[in-house]
Amino acid sequence: MFNILPLIIILFCLAVIIFVVVKKFPQIANLDVDNLLEEKESRKKNAMIDKRVDDQSRKLKEVWARRLAPIVKIWGRLQLSFRIYFGNIERLWHHEESVKIKAKVKEMTPEEKEKRIKAIIQEAETNLQAGNLDKAEELFISAIKINVKSVPAYRGLGETYIAKKTLDEARQTFKFVLQLNKEDDTAMVKLAEIAEMQGNWQEAIQYYEKAMIKNDSLSPRFYHLAELLLKIKQPEIAREAIVQAVELEPKNPKYLDLLLEIAIICGDKKLSQEGLNELRLVNPENQKLDEFRMRIAQMQ
Asked: Which of 80, 242, 273, 299 has the smallest number of CB atoms closer than 10 Å to its CB?
C-alpha cells in the first residue's frame, strides 16, 4: 500500500499540470511566432521612419535658417537705424531742456533756426573735443531735431559715435549723410575709415575709391588707398595710388618711403631709383636709405 501512495501523488500532480495547460492553451495558441516577428519588424520600421522624419525636420530647419539669414540681417539693420535716428533722438528730446527748445522751434524763423543749429553744433563740437561724449551726442541730436536734414549735425554725431567706439552706429549715421547728399566725399572717407577699423579692407578700398572720384585733390586719401591695396596684395594698383599721392605732395617723406617699398615689390627699378633720389634730398638722415639702396641694387 505504501508503494501505491507515491504513484497516486505523481498521478495527481500530473493531472493538475494537464488541467492548467488545457486551461491556458487558447492563450498559448495565440502567441504566434510569425506575429511576434512582424511586430518586431514593425517597431524597427517605425523607429527608422521616426529617425528619418527627425533628420528631414532638422535639415529643413537648417535650409530655412540659411534662407532667412539675410532677412534677419536686414531686419537687424533696420532696427539699428530706427534706434539711432528715432529712438535716441526721442529719448534725448524728452529731456526737460530739450522740450523747452522744441516749443521755441515752432516759433522760429528759418534764419533763427539756422543760427540756433550752428550754436548747438559748436557747443557739441566743444564737448566732443573735451571728451564729453554723452553731452556731445545729446547736443548733436538736439540740432538734428530742429532740422532733420542737417548734414553737419549728422557728421558730428557720426564722429561722436566713432569716439565712443560704437562703430555700427557711426556707420549708419554716415550712410544717412550719403542719403542726404550723395556727393559727400567726406562721409565716404569716414565710412572707409570705419571699415578699416573693423578690418574690412575691401569695403574701405571701395569707399576711398568713391571719395577720390568725387575729389582727387587730397593726397592722404591716395596714401591710405595704397596702404590698403598693399595689404590685400595688389601692389601694382597700389603703385598707381602712391604715385598720385607723391605727385600731390612730392616732399612728404612718408609718401616717398611707401613709394619706394611698393616700387621695389613691383620690380620697378626706375621708379625705385627716382624715389630713392627724392627721399635722399627730402630726408638725408633717413635710416632706411642704405637698406633701400641695397634692395634696389639687387633688382634685375
From this structure: 299
Q: Are 235 and 262 in contact (CB under 8 A)?
A: yes
Domain check: are 129 and 109 in the same one? yes
Q: Which residues contact 226 (CB under 8 A, 6 or more apart)?
A: 238, 239, 241, 242, 245, 258, 262
Residue where the block lists cell 568725387:
214
**Which residue from 215, 250, 252, 255 is spatially nearest to 239, judged by alpha carbons?**
255
- Tell whether 200 and 260 lie within a shared domain: no
Residue 177 binned pLDDT confidence (cut-offs 50, 70, 90): very high
Question: How many structural domains comprise the chain?
Answer: 3
Cell of 253: 617723406
Distance between CA atoms of 170 and 157, rounded to whole angstroms? 8
- pLDDT range class, residue 286, cuts 50, 70, 90: confident
Q: Are residues 111 and 95 in the same domain?
A: yes
Identify whether residues 203 and 226 lie together within a single domain: no
Rounded to whole angstroms, the Cα distance separating 119 from 216 reads 32
The model's confidence at residue 285, banded by pLDDT at 50, 70 and 90, is confident
Q: Residue 47 pLDDT > 90, yes or no?
A: no
The whole domain housing 198 covers: 188-215
266 and 259 in contact (C-beta within 8 Å)? no
Instruction: For 231, list phi and psi in degrees, rounded to 5.
Output: -65, -35
CA distance 149 to 154: 8
Number of Cβ within a 10 Å radius of residue 12: 10
Report how far residue 229's alpha carbon sits from residue 204's, in angstroms, rounded to the nearest whole number: 10
Helix intervals (H) in the chain: 4-30, 33-82, 88-93, 96-105, 110-130, 133-146, 151-163, 167-180, 185-197, 201-214, 219-231, 235-248, 253-266, 269-282, 289-297
Cα–Cα nearest to 297, from 259, 257, 264: 264
